[in-house]
Amino acid sequence: MVAAPGGRSRRHGWLVVLCCLVAILAGIATMVALVATWSKDARSAPITAPATSPTAETTTSTAPSPSATATKRPSKGLSKTARSRLTSTLAGYLDDGSGRLAISVRDLSTGVTFGYETKLTFATASIVKADVLTALLLQAQRAGRTLTVSEKSLATRMIEYSDNAAATALWNKIGGAAGLTSANHKLGLRRTVAGSGGYWGLTLTNTADQVRLLSALTSKTSPLKARNRTYALGLMQSVSSSQDWGVSAGVDDDDSVALKNGWLSRATDGNTWVVNSIGRVHGSRHNYLIAILSDHNTTMSAGVTKVEHVSKLIATALAKV
User: Fold this and answer.
1) 317 Cβ contact partners less than 8 Å away, ≥ 6 residues apart
2) Is the Cβ–Cβ distance between 204 and 193 less than 8 Å?
3) Mean pLDDT of 116-134
4) 149-200: per-residue pLDDT in tens?
5) Mean predicted confidence (pLDDT) in 25-54
6) Are residues 245 and 270 in contact, defined by beta-carbon separation less than 8 angstroms?
7) N or C: which end of the chain has fewer CB within 10 A?
8) Is residue 76 very low, low, confident or very high in pLDDT (cuts 50, 70, 90)?
């Protein structure tokens, strides 16, 4: 008996279809089980932030927080306790009736200021020469020129050697008292009165104004252009060794000090001495402007000793540790 054509093929086809159905049903069952497992894991897992790329993760983990940008943060300056202690120390030291003394300090790293008897007024003596130089530079700036060879020679003698003849020549060059007053208005010196009758050393000032003058020689917001600030500070950093005293006392070996000193014996005050020192101190642990003014000192030497003792106290108090 001959089988019907295609009989075996049809039977084989049904078997294949049946096997496929079984496989599909098994696959569906597996997927259902997996979904159930994932759902359970998702419900029990903690909520976390989305994963970031390796680059972003590295950046996030290594970027310092605002409060920890350096392992060693700079000093915040004088605390209330330190100010009180320094004031008491100064008062105790100056309580011998041997003259008056005032101090103004501005820490350029922290913005902290300190003052002692800042309302007192003193004759400038030769510290006014830094003011005369600043006025000269302002006038040259306004005229759109640099200093002449002659002006530079006079400025060098006036600042580095405190030459009085050079100071008188430049005093006259800026227009005397009127020229200095005009410059000081621009610089914001509020309590400085230019000496009259050509007596530039009898210009009256206080420590706050002297720090304002120093700020004009150091600040980017100064009316003086950068090249003129650099020039003036360069002269003040190069004073002759015989005049390197005052605010340079007590500073660190790596500090650079730009200063101008002044000293004057006054017959009207019983031949006592005015001894003043102003300057900028800058180094790894210091960055401040300082003005120390004193008068009624019995001798110049006594005045220098007093100013330097106070300078050491300030340098120690402002050192970054």
Assistant:
1) 78, 82, 86, 114
2) yes
3) 97
4) 999 999 999 999 999 999 999 999 999 999 999 999 999 999 999 999 999 9
5) 41
6) no
7) N
8) low
HEC-encoded secondary structure of 91-118: HHHCCCCCCEEEEEEEECCCCCEEEECC
List Cβ neighbours of 137 (8 Å cut-off, separation of 6 or more).
147, 224, 228, 231, 232
Measured CA to CA, the distance from residue 216 to residue 188 in angstroms comes to 9
Question: Please, is 82 exposed, middle or buried when counting C-beta atoms within 10 Å of its C-beta (0-12, 13-18, 19+)?
Answer: middle
Q: What tokens does 82 get? A: 């330190």
* Amino acid residing at 301: S
Quick check: 155 and 136 in contact, CB under 8 A?
Answer: yes
For residue range 79-88, what is the model confidence (pLDDT) as tens digits? 888 889 999 9
For residue 300, what are its two tokens? 């110049």
**Which residue in 293, 303, 239, 297 sits closest to 101, CA to CA?**
293
Count Cβ neighbours within 10 Å for each residue of 290-316 and write b for 16 or more, e otherwise.
Answer: bbbbbbbbeeeebbbebbbebbebbbe
The position carrying tokens 């360069």 is 234
